[in-house]
Amino acid sequence: MADPVLLHSRTVQQPRATINKLHILFHLTAILLLLYYRTTNLFYENNVPTLSWSLVTVSELIIAFVWFLSQGFRWLPVSRSVFHEKSPSDVGLPGIDVFVCTADSKKEPTVEVMNTVISALALDYPPEKLSVYLSDDGGSFITLYAIKEAHEFAKSWIPFCRKYGIKTRCPEAYFSLLAEDERLLWSDQFKVEEENIKSKYEIFKKNVENVGEKDENNCGQMDRPPCVEILHDNRNDEENNEDKNKMPTLVYVSRERRPSYPHRYKAGALNALLRVSGILSNAPYLLVLDCDMYCNDPTSARQAMCFHLDPHLSRSLAFVQYPQIFYNVSKNDIYDGQARSAYTIGFSYGCMLESTFTGYLLHCRGWTSVYLYPKRPCFMGCTTIDMKDAMVQLMKWNSELIKVGLSKFSPLTYGVSRMSILQSMCYGYFTLQPLLSVALLLYAIVPQLCFINGTALYPKVSSPWFAVFSVVYLSSLCQHLYEVLSTGGTLRTFWNEQRMWFIKSVSGSLFGCLDAIMKRIGIQKANLRLTNKAVDKEKLEKYEKGRFNFQGAAMFTVPLIILGILNLVCFFGGLRRVILENNIEVMFGQVFLSSFHLLLSYPILQGLIPSKRKKN
């Protein structure tokens, strides 16, 4: 019996794995020494400020705990590659159902949603084995009209892409600068056909946008019967001998919504699609896309099949995960939108982060997954470009994550007995990292107040213990810098991530924790907060210039402003005391900490002052 064809490979990243393990051991030793210094001084020294010392110790314990959980990602880094050209012929490939969900045509621009649908229809996969389902949870007339227009445009777009082997099969991306290289060195015939396709696309966009403007107040109905409309059935294409003109099945679904009946948000919408697809196509595999996450590589489905068709892996493989790459991230990426480190059947209820919770429960039940990061991003989406949307999104995520982390399903209690220790540490990090908001809030208040009062919280420079604190700080900076540079980032990326880590922690993450507490005690009900994906020109200009935009984010800026002013007052007041008492050696740790906090607070002041002038 012949050996199965090798469709993928897995490689441990060396020497990165060795460097990571050595650094983990080194950094852990330094942290233990630091905590030893804190606890022994707290219990055995009489001259330490008990309350302040205790709060700082608690803060450092939380930071150390979350850091330890995050090392699950670093212990054994691996890279995977696929050989999709060796995958079976079209006859041997299984069916795939593609699910796309949208809920609000105002916050999720309809043309952008249709681009995602069209890119899915144009995947390099046998059309008779591919079905695309759009869930419209808003029940909007605009979305139904738009998908009919998208279907008509796809009849021309898909054959064009197949004929010329176009890789960027999202029309909006193809006709932008993102795919400029694909349009070079082609024949005159290609250019004529391309102009014809572009003209059809512009007409499609104009028609959809015009209907949207006329009916801009139509946000759908929250009390409605179900609606399922089959726009194209690929079974009717069998009589057509030209493969290039065949299209996948396309279905529009608007599930029943009743105010008195829980609809379970996006998880409910996905489960409704499962029931509909089970009747129409019943494919054994699913591809779930966000409404703004278009298919950037037509071979993405075939790449995933390289794992699912491996007989040694497929029996336990639940899903293949791709990184979330954004096409609109600026060079500065001031909001850390790319989120480099956050690399997340029925869909489980009980948590509005349905993909994270479903994946977690699958792993707890013995299923496995693979993470594939190809050179060409398979999927590309749209990130937030202002502080309000970034913080609303972060608050939503952290509220749901901390709820899981502190529930009976906590990865450190429920998960640790059902999966590997490293995997439970990774899930533990995601679900408990919102606790950093408490730690950093304490660290942004207590040392500063002690500084202005002349109370030392760190060893003096001449003490050997000062070297321990310095090593912990420099070691963490070096680790972060190494990870940024080794993944193609720059020093600017490093600084933006440092800055946003603090800003997000004491704003979005903090409010996420408060939101979870209010839901827990019944003060606030769970509600769906959609991220606004509509692009505003003024916001975009500020974002591309690297200027923070706080418009509409007043609630999130309150702790930032208070901490910024507090630090400013304490810095100058404490510095005056240091100069008068000539005790820089004793207070150097707090001088440095306060100075660093001022640097982190700079964009807050820069972003707020111009907005006040504009109002005046």
Structure keywords:
cellulose synthase (UDP-forming) activity; five-stranded mixed beta sheet; 18 helices; disordered C terminus; three-stranded mixed beta sheet; elongated; 616 residues
Walk me through this protein's architecture.
The chain is of the alpha/beta class and 616 residues long. 54% of the residues lie in helices and 9% in strands. The N and C termini lie far apart (81 Å). It contains 18 helices and 12 strands. Strands 5-6-4-3-7 form a 5-stranded mixed sheet, sandwiched between helices. Strands 8-12-10 form a 3-stranded mixed sheet. It is elongated, with a radius of gyration of 27 Å. The C terminus is likely disordered. α2 packs antiparallel against α13, α3 runs parallel beside α4 and α4 runs antiparallel to α6. β3, α3 and β4 form a beta-alpha-beta unit.
Annotation field: number of helices: 18
**Mean pLDDT across all residues, rounded?**
88
Radius of gyration: 27 Å
Low-confidence stretches: 611-616
**Which structural class fits the helix and strand makeup?**
alpha/beta
